[in-house]
UniProtKB/TrEMBL annotation:
This is Protein kinase domain-containing protein. The lineage of its organism: Eukaryota, Viridiplantae, Streptophyta, Embryophyta, Tracheophyta. Mg(2+) binds at residues 155, 169. InterPro entries: Kinase-like_dom_sf (IPR011009), Prot_kinase_dom (IPR000719), Protein_kinase_ATP_BS (IPR017441), Ser-Thr/Tyr_kinase_cat_dom (IPR001245), Ser/Thr_kinase_AS (IPR008271), Ser_Thr_protein_kinase (IPR050167). One of its GO terms (cellular component) is cytoplasm.
């Protein structure tokens, strides 16, 4: 059932049998990530290299029920959205353990990519290219009635060539209760829109009204981080950052940023959610800024090529076209998984 604001209720999400995979065809290799309730492995499914997310069911009946429902919702959402900037969903199974299988992305997280570059900043064109990748992914989610709610560099993964960013992890979709999301200081607070919490909600995890504009706020914090390669609200704990943003209207500094970028950031993280742009508007603002900073195209005689100056369409530019061939040290950037030992794959049934 679709709600009045165009977003889907929890009853809409069900685990569709057509996405169930046969665990006999699933093999698990080295672990490549870990969260509070799941571990992610490199693996194979029918000879295809994949990422395998194995969800821990929990120990109590209440935990098991909650995590099974969350698993079903995540799979339902993954199965109905496809986009070049979203990790491709391959399938899932519930037995012998809950598993979600997606394409493997070996470029590492955006967080690790930026840490490896410090103290240097990303080239502005690369930062904007990554931001466009993220914005297009969220625009796709919103068009399907899904609010991601957890935009942050840890949930943004680079392709093996480190030229494209893809959004992952639907674990905190809108249908999740705020109680579960806010019971631990996970770091999410730093990117979380102020309307998601108040003094009461931080203490008790009570719900507060919000809409898809929470993703615009989080996007602005990520964009600021891309431009500065610094942790937002540096010097504050995660909870201090949350309180500063919510109750003092504190935002990261806009000093030394071009006016066009300052306008984008200010509009996206403004206190009033209704005043924030949607992601179609964000994409157009980013494309406009990119058209300003990109060098003009060489003049081509009209007798050879009859065309007006090229205008970047919504599906352009691919981030790959904006990546510098070399970094500031003069060396070609290397993928963080390049030297990782591959190891041999062992049977899925031995994993847990």
């Amino acid at each position: 059932m679709e709600s009045g604001n165009g977003f889907y209720s929890v009853d809409e999400f069900r685990l569709d049998a057509k996405w169930l995979i046969d665990p006999q065809n699933l093999f698990v290799g080295p672990r490549i990530g870990e969260g509070a309730h799941a571990k992610v492995y490199e693996g194979k499914y029918k000879n295809q290299n994949v990422a395998i997310k194995i969800v821990h069911r929990g120990d109590t009946p209440e935990e098991i029920s909650k995590r099974e429902a969350r698993f079903a919702r995540e799979v339902a959402m993954l199965s109905r959205v496809q986009h070049k900037n979203l990790a491709k969903f391959i399938g899932a199974c519930k037995e012998p353990v809950m598993v979600i299988v997606t394409e493997i992305l070996l470029g590492g997280t955006l967080r690790k990519y930026m840490l490896n570059m410090r103290p240097r900043r990303l080239d502005t064109r690369v930062a904007i290219g990554f931001a466009l990748d993220i914005a297009r992914a969220v625009e796709c989610l919103h068009s399907h009635g899904i609010i991601h709610r957890d935009l942050k560099p840890e949930n943004l993964i680079l392709t093996a060539d480190q030229k494209t960013v893809k959004l992952v992890d639907f674990g905190l979709a809108r249908e999740e209760s705020l109680t579960e999301m806010m019971t631990a200081e996970t770091g999410t607070y730093r990117w979380m829109a102020p309307e998601l919490y108040s003094t009461v909600t931080l203490r008790h995890g009570e719900k507060k009204h919000y809409n898809h504009k929470v993703d615009a706020y989080s996007f602005a914090i990520v964009l600021w981080e891309l431009l500065h390669n610094k942790l937002p609200f540096e010097g504050m704990s995660n909870l201090q950052a949350a309180y500063a943003a919510a109750f003092k209207n504190v935002r990261p500094s806009l000093e030394n940023l071009p006016e066009e970028l300052s306008i984008i950031l200010n509009s996206c993280w403004t206190e009033d959610p209704n005043a924030r742009p949607n992601f179609s508007q964000i994409i157009q603002m980013l494309l406009h800024y990119l058209s300003i900073i990109l060098p003009p195209e060489p003049m081509i005689p009209s007798r050879i090529f009859m065309s007006e100056n090229r205008v970047l369409p919504p599906e352009s530019p691919g981030t790959s076209s904006l990546m510098p061939l070399r970094d500031d040290s003069g060396e070609t950037p290397k993928g963080e998984m390049e030297n990782k030992p591959k190891g041999f794959f062992f049977c899925f049934n031995h994993c847990y």
